[in-house]
């Protein structure tokens, strides 16, 4: 196999991406990934083991390289063959398909009580998740419990004795200001 764009170059110094780009350019049409890999293997005289060892890296590179574009079905082409408008239209078409799939209503699951009698009535099902006036009313008891908890916490704090507390500690604010001004003078 001969690739005219790579004539005169040593095959041992070529990367798989360079060969793939030249191959697609020479063929002038899109190619399946498997055919690209086989052509690269033939051109670079690589063994099956060498190709297997480097195929995942090559696939990552062909995905991240900006000059290749996947056409679906693991078929690849050069991005330069397509106008930017065509590429955007294909992306929009895929977005529209995804939106259509999202619009389908989801099936509602019904609640089943596997432990109870079938005739048993579940009050949650009847309310359909609507809050009643009782649910929305102010709970004065909960507030009283919170006040009791706060009072108990305050009492515990008052009982705590601090050891080695020197009540005659003085803080000289001027010392802090003097140190800051000394630092700025040194700059």
TrEMBL record:
Pfam families: HARE-HTH. GO terms for molecular function: DNA-directed RNA polymerase activity. InterPro entries: Asxl_HARE-HTH, RNAP_delta_N_dom_sf, RpoE. Residues 14-81 form the HTH HARE-type domain. GO terms for cellular component: DNA-directed RNA polymerase complex. GO terms for biological process: DNA-templated transcription; regulation of DNA-templated transcription. Gene3D superfamilies: RNA polymerase, subunit delta, N-terminal domain. Keywords: DNA-directed RNA polymerase, Nucleotidyltransferase, Transcription, Transferase. It comes from the Bacteria. Residues 97-187 are annotated as: Disordered. Residues 117-148, 156-187 have a biased composition (Acidic residues). The keyword Transferase applies. RNAP is composed of a core of 2 alpha, a beta and a beta' subunits. The core is associated with a delta subunit and one of several sigma factors. Participates in both the initiation and recycling phases of transcription. In the presence of the delta subunit, RNAP displays an increased specificity of transcription, a decreased affinity for nucleic acids, and an increased efficiency of RNA synthesis because of enhanced recycling. Belongs to the RpoE family. This is Probable DNA-directed RNA polymerase subunit delta. The lineage of its organism: Bacteria, Bacillati, Bacillota, Bacilli, Lactobacillales. The gene is rpoE.
């Amino acid at each position: 196999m001969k690739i005219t764009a790579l004539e005169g170059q040593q095959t041992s110094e070529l990367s798989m991406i360079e060969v793939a780009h030249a191959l697609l350019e020479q063929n002038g049409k899109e190619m399946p990934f498997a055919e690209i890999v086989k052509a690269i293997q033939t051109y670079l005289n690589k063994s099956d083991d060498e190709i297997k060892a480097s195929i995942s890296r090559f696939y990552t590179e062909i995905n991240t390289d900006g000059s290749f574009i996947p056409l679906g079905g693991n078929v690849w082409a050069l991005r330069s063959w397509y106008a930017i408008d065509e590429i955007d239209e294909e992306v929009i078409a895929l977005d529209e398909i995804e939106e259509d799939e999202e619009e389908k209503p989801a099936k509602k699951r019904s609640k089943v009580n596997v432990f109870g009698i079938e005739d048993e009535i579940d009050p949650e099902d009847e309310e359909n998740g609507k809050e009643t006036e009782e649910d929305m009313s102010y709970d004065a008891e909960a507030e009283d419990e919170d006040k009791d908890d706060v009072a108990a916490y305050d009492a515990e704090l008052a009982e705590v004795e601090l050891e080695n507390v020197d009540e005659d500690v003085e803080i000289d604010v001027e010392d802090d200001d003097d140190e800051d001004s000394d630092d700025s003078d040194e700059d």
